[in-house]
Design a protein that fits this description.
The structure is a single chain. The protein is α+β, with helices and mostly antiparallel strands. It is built from four helices and five strands. The chain has helices spanning about 30-40, 60-65, 70-80, 85-95; strands spanning about 1-5, 5-15, 15-20, 45-50, 55-60.
C-alpha cells in the first residue's frame, strides 16, 4: 500500500505497522530524528528502523493514538517529519473503525 511519495506500508496488524521509507535509506541522522520526534507521541510503544533497507517498525496502542493528545501530537510529528502523508488519514487508519 503506497501512502506517500516515498513511503509504503509493507506489513500491518493492529498495534504494529512496518513502513518502507525511502528517505531513511543510508541516512541514519534522518532516521534518528524521526525516532526522536515520535518518542513523545502518546500511544507509541516503540519505533525501530533499519537504514540499510529503509524499514521503520512502529508499535502502538490505538486507544491512546486516537485520544485527543495522542492524535494531536502524532498529527504534528507526521506533518513535520513525513510531510508526504495525509496525517488525518493515518490517524483514522491506525485507530480503526469509529476513530476520530
Amino acid at each position: 500500500m503506497n501512502i506517500g511519495a516515498d513511503i509504503q506500508v509493507s506489513h500491518f496488524v493492529p498495534g504494529r505497522v512496518r513502513l518502507r521509507v525511502a528517505a531513511i535509506k543510508g541516512n541514519p541522522r534522518l532516521a534518528e530524528r524521526i525516532r526522536s520526534a515520535f518518542r513523545d507521541v502518546p500511544g507509541l510503544t516503540g519505533l525501530s528502523y533499519n537504514t540499510t533497507t529503509g524499514s521503520v517498525l512502529i508499535t502502538y496502542d490505538a486507544r491512546l493514538i486516537i485520544a485527543e493528545d495522542g492524535g494531536q501530537r502524532l498529527r504534528s510529528v507526521l506533518r513535520e517529519h513525513l510531510p508526504g502523508l495525509d496525517a488525518d488519514w493515518v490517524i483514522r487508519w491506525l485507530g480503526g473503525p469509529g476513530s476520530s
